[in-house]
What we know:
Elements: E1 8-16, E2 20-25, E3 30-34, E4 50-55, E5 65-72, E6 75-78, H1 83-93, E7 105-112, E8 117-125, E9 128-137, E10 139-142, E11 144-148, H2 154-168, E12 172-179, E13 184-189, H3 195-207, E14 210-219, E15 222-228
Parallel strand pairs: 9-12, 11-13, 12-14
Antiparallel strand pairs: 1-2, 1-4, 2-3, 4-5, 5-6, 7-8, 8-9, 10-11, 14-15
Helix pairs in contact: 2-3
Amino acid sequence: MRFETPLVPATLIRRYKRFLADVRLEDGTTITAVCPNTGSMKTCVEPGRPVLLSVSDSPTRKYRHTWEMIRIGRSWVGIHTGRPNAVVCEAILAGRVPELSGYEEVRREVPFGRERSRVDLLLRKGDRLCYVEVKNVTLAVGPGVAAFPDAVTERGTKHLRELSRMARAGHRAVIFYFLGRADCRLVRPADEIDPEYGRTLRRAMAAGVEPLAYRAIVRPHEITLGRPVPFEIPATAPMLRSRWGRAR
């Protein structure tokens, strides 16, 4: 997925009210940008970090700029939760996800399930259906280790329940973890942040839901899908109360 226009460099001042961030442009001007991420963004909101913004020409938008990525160490981290779906869809159609190859049709944002959900991607080959839910992973919890979610996610837990129902009904169901940072080499559930999500994930896997994890290649001009990374899940989830807010 290439950005249609060059991203604008800036420096992060602060992120607040979940959906807003103040940044300083290269000319010293301070502006407010939309923050398209409802999670805590823990490990991705340090003031003073370089960030990149996209710009909208829409006359109806209050804030023209949207925060797309932040520089952590030597690499960029994609924080826009709306981007992974497009990147994964593009990669599937190009045959770059072997586990999801061979399907004739890929549809996005399709209503499904009992709880008024929308699945990110629905793949079809004849009568065979594959439901794919994509999650953006930005939380680093240790050297080389990333985890999802970075905040309590009732919505994410609901999606796992819906995928479990699809798997039990005989369809294929996949939870796809999109690792948006290059400094991590594996993904695990963040049981210490949202134990209920971890428990539901384990039940979903027992029902037949397949976890996949791929690293993204995040560059200032594009985001593409890279290689698969291990998805590791502890045998049991700790009973800890989350200190963070809600997430996608």
